[in-house]
Structure formats: structure tokens, C-alpha cells
Amino acid sequence: MRVLICKDEASAIARAADHIAEHMAQRSDCVLGLATGGTMLPLYRRLIRLHADGLSFASVTTFNLDEYIGLAPDHPASYHSYMRKALFDHVDVDPSRTHLPRGDAADPVAEAADYEARIARSGGISLQLLGVGRNGHIGFNEPTSSLASPTRIKTLTESTRRANQPYFGSDETPPGYAITMGVGTILSARECLLLATGSAKANAVAAMVEGPVAAVCPASALQMHARTTVVLDRDAATEMKLTDYYHHVHPDGEATRFD
Ligand code: F6R
Questions:
Q1: Closest CA to 155 of 132, 137, 171
Q2: Which end of the chain is more exposed for a tag (fewer CB within 10 A), N or C?
Q3: pTM for this one?
Q4: Ligand 1 site, residue 66, Cβ cutoff 6 A
């Protein structure tokens, strides 16, 4: 794992955005795996600014990690809506190349299998963007998810539903189930980029980077991926033990030639 510790949130966002922009510039067949959540909002704002400066999404294909079961794409708290508001409506991405699982599919099990097949048909994800939950989830792969799992339905933990309550109206609670890319789906991306900021993520980050590879922390499976970059601010890095080493290898979170 390449662990980049940036001095603050703004630098971490800039580092992650530059990484994505460089990836897009290097590949004509770029397939981005996208994430949602609070951490990603400033990153998408930064990508929109880069777009204003010339970064084109016209030939990019995207696949989001997950969607709540029961929410139609036009539900304000759906991840379809999130992505339109946060990114898609502000860049030149071709809407027909953007993909999210349909939370309102009549047969969510079939929808999950079809989503996995669509990812494979696209040639696979070239760069998967990830956040991490306080409980160590990636996508909606909650603790004890199989580390080889494909896209499927997962039951959300109460803590995840509470964390996502702010996106819902006061008279609504987040759905209990989601369709999510599996840990196995994520590991089959050619490259992963995980962004975590703020002290609330410090324990999950330490377990992910330095803990054992264990289903109880699904993000720890990234230790088995040959090309994963973890971009952190200092607050998210406080619970790791080897921070001096990460600073030595990557001063100020610079992506130096050797890890
Ligand atoms: C959602 C997703 C989740 C979030 C995670 C962190 O698409 O991938 O794994 O990345 O729940 O969410 P925030 O950033 O809101 O703390």
C-alpha cells in the first residue's frame, strides 16, 4: 500500500484529484469506479474545477459502488441523485456511460448480478475510488463481508444507517439494504485510490493499513491489492503506528517514485 499523509484536508483532496486527473490523462479507455459520502464531496468539487480548466470526462465510463434498495434514481437521497448533484451535472460526462445499480429494480438479486456483468463487459474498472466507513466498510461491504464477494445485496449496520441519516428527511430513515460492489469486485479493479479525512476515520484507517487482513475490517482486504494508494490528512492518520515511516517515504504526501 502507498500511504500518503497530507498536511490537511485540502491538500489530501488536491492530491487525490490530481491522481484521478493523471489517470484520466493516461488512458483513453478510462473506467472510473466512483464512491459517494461526505468525504467525496470536496473531491468532486475539485474535479469540477479541474474540468473548468480543461479536464474532460467525455470518454470516461463510470460505475458507482452502491445504491440503496428501494430508492428510485430520482429520490433525493439516492446515490443517483447524489452523483448528478455532486459531479455529473457539472462536467462533460456522457450520461449513457455512467452506471449505478438500480435500487428500485423489481429483482434486486438479478440487478446485482447484471451490474457485475456490466462492469466485466466494460473491460473492468481501471481506477476505483473509495472512502472508508468508521466500521471499516468499503462500498457497503459491512464488517464480516466475504473478502471475495461479488456485487450483491448487503444488510446495512445500524451505525452506517445513522451515519447516513443526514442525507434523508427528518421523517425518513435510510433503507436497511443496499446493492454494493463486493470486496472481490473492488479488488479486481486495476488500481484503487482510497481517500479518508478527519479524526473519525483514524481507527478504521489504522485497522485497514496496519491491522490483520480480516473480514471484520473489509477495507483491510486492500492490503492484498498490488496497486492501492491511500490518501489521508493528518487527522485520519493519528492511530497508525508507522506514520514516521510513511512521512519518510512520502514527505508531505508526495507520491515519490519508490514506496
Ligand atoms: C458509498 C461508499 C461508502 C463511503 C463511506 C464513508 O458509496 O462507498 O463506503 O465511502 O461510508 O462515507 P463518508 O465519506 O460519508 O464518511
A1: 137
A2: C
A3: 0.97
A4: yes
Residue type, 259: D
Orientation angle between helical segments 79-86 and 40-52, nearest 10 degrees: 40
- Which residue(s) pair with 153 in the sheet? 179
Counted domains in the chain: 1
Q: Is residue 152 part of a domain?
A: yes
Of all atoms in ligand 1, which is nearest to the CA of residue 163? Answer: 15
| Residue 236 burial (10 A CB sphere; 0-12, 13-18, 19+) | buried
Q: Is the pLDDT of residue 29 over 90?
A: no
Quick check: CB of 131 below 6 Å from ligand 1? yes
Full domain range(s) for residue 223: 2-230
Tell me the mean pLDDT in the region 96-116: 98
- Minimum-distance ligand 1 atom for the alpha carbon of 201: 16
In a domain, 62, yes or no: yes
CB 223 within 8 A of CB 192: no
CA 98 – CA 58 distance, rounded (Å): 11
